[in-house]
Design a protein that fits this description.
This protein has 231 residues and is an alpha/beta fold. It is 48% helix and 13% strand. The chain is built from eleven helices and seven strands.
Length: 231
């Protein structure tokens, strides 16, 4: 009997480890190693929504934020939405992440978590959180493309990760990329590794929630039309 998507994702996350070089001032955070409860709630999430072998469409993010998937292990899901929208409580952490707010508002209008996750799988080419040290000594969220040397160092790891995501049974003729700059780099990876057919680009949830909140409904409508191949 073939493994369900849930079992494959859990296996992928359990074995997830980045040990290659990084530029000075960057670190990778692995939530599965840092907090035992992360592994537990992540398992609950995938068994709840992905315990089948049905094909799904792939939504490609950038890399997890330290307050979203960097804590819960679930893409674009902070602890608030994990509990209120997915019905899974996390006791050891309490986080609010603005991308998660937008995504779950959109998911609610799409038809709710069960409907949405039955059709879509979300993850990132670099599936661990990246942080960068400021001059003041603080650690802040970073994107894999923020530094050209960083991108070159993590590129092979990202291609390998995308191939492992695809092997879950995802559709590759068309994928949905979150973030215009992210799409430029995914296009580069795709030219090299020939992973996907058509790349459909959507504005990143953080950008919408942070800078376009007054037009949020327009972006939600755009997401739903695009994900349903109506735009």
């Amino acid at each position: 009997m073939s493994k369900s998507i849930a079992n494959k994702v859990i296996e992928f996350n359990t074995q997830l480890h980045y040990s290659d070089q990084l530029p000075d001032g960057f670190q990778v955070l692995n939530p599965y190693m840092d907090n035992p409860e992360t592994m537990d709630v992540m398992r609950q999430f995938y068994y709840k929504f992905y315990n089948d072998s049905n094909s799904r469409k792939f939504i490609v993010g950038i890399n997890p934020s330290r307050h979203g998937a960097g804590v819960t292990g679930v893409p674009f899901t902070d602890t608030k939405r994990l509990e209120s929208e997915c019905g899974i409580k996390m006791d050891s952490a309490h986080t609010h992440e603005i991308s998660s707010v937008y995504m779950y508002d959109m998911i609610a209008e799409y038809g709710g978590t069960a409907t949405f996750y039955k059709q879509f799988y979300i993850n990132s080419p670099f599936p661990l959180a990246i942080v960068r040290k400021t001059k003041e000594g603080k650690w802040l969220n970073a994107n894999y493309y923020d530094d050209s040397k960083l991108f070159e160092l993590v590129k092979d790891f990202m291609i390998d990760s995308l191939k492992k995501h695809i092997s879950l049974g995802l559709e590759t003729e068309e994928v949905f990329i979150l973030g215009k700059k992210n799409a430029q780099f995914i296009h580069k990876l795709n030219q090299e590794a020939k992973l996907f057919g058509n790349l459909k680009v959507l504005e990143h949830p953080r950008y919408i929630q942070q800078y376009k909140s007054k037009e949020k409904q327009l972006y939600i409508d755009k997401y739903i039309l695009t994900l349903n191949h109506l735009l």
